[in-house]
Specification:
By secondary structure, the chain is α+β, with helices and mostly antiparallel strands. It has 2 domains: 2-80 and 188-199, Ribosomal Protein S4 Delta 41, Chain A, domain 1, CATH 1.10.1050.10; 92-180, Roll (Structural Genomics Hypothetical 15.5 Kd Protein In mrcA-pckA Intergenic Region, Chain A). The protein is 43% helix and 8% strand. It has 11 helices and 5 strands. Strands 2-1-3-5-4 form a 5-stranded antiparallel sheet. A hairpin with a 4-residue loop joins strand 4 and strand 5 (174-177). Helix 6 packs across helix 7 (81-90), helix 7 (81-90) crosses helix 11 (192-199) and helix 8 (93-99) packs across helix 9. It is globular. The two termini are 26 Å apart.
Length: 201
């Protein structure tokens, strides 16, 4: 997927910093004609917009229908649609578990949530798309704190628990969203306006 989008998507979290990504070995699109695609003429505006949408969708691990529904909700929220979309993606429970450093990747965080290892305000929540609100406490269930995946993530300081809008205690395996992030608070190198243009056609 990194090769298809032409850049590292960090789908394995912090492991991508230590392991050699496929795009570093073969910096061209996958497939039989991958190298020849690099020499083709400039992509159309539609193709550029589509690639940006696919990039963001893959980073957060959403299916097309899920992503489209989230976009539609973001477009009705008032303010800048692109900013709303990124903030909505960031405040999903699976992403928050990753950002807090309880999982090495968003995919792993999603599994932790689905397998009932994560609590929100003391109650188990197994819905990855659950919207976390400011002040809510997220924690790893006490009986799940010795899971190798969780221990490995915490020991390697996975995630982005140092972000200003997040507070985390890795010893207690608890954390919370201090305040709702703005687009400027999210370290994501994407052009969300291209996604807005794509869905607005």
């Amino acid at each position: 997927m990194c090769r298809r989008e032409g850049q590292k998507l960090f789908l394995k979290g912090k492991r991508c910093h230590t392991e050699k990504c496929a795009i570093e070995r073969r910096n061209y699109p996958p497939g039989q004609h991958g190298m020849s695609r690099m020499r083709r003429r400039r992509m159309s505006d539609y193709a550029v917009q589509l690639r940006e949408k696919q990039k963001v969708r893959r980073i957060y691990g959403l299916q097309e229908e899920q992503f489209r529904k989230l976009f539609q909700t973001s477009s009705r929220g008032g303010g800048i649609t692109g900013d709303n979309l990124i903030v909505a993606l960031e405040t999903r429970l699976d992403n928050m578990v990753y950002r807090l450093g309880f999982a090495p990747s968003r995919k792993s965080a999603r599994q932790l949530v689905r397998h009932r290892h994560i609590e929100v305000e003391g109650a188990i929540v197994n819905i990855p798309s659950f919207e976390v609100k400011p002040g809510m406490e997220i924690s790893v269930k006490s009986s799940s704190r010795d899971l190798p995946l969780v221990k490995e993530a915490v020991e390697s300081s996975a995630g982005d628990g140092t972000l200003g809008w997040i507070s985390v205690d890795h010893k207690k395996l608890t954390g919370r969203m201090v305040e709702k992030p703005t687009r400027a608070d999210v370290p994501l190198a994407v052009q969300e306006q291209l996604i807005v243009e794509l869905y607005s056609k």
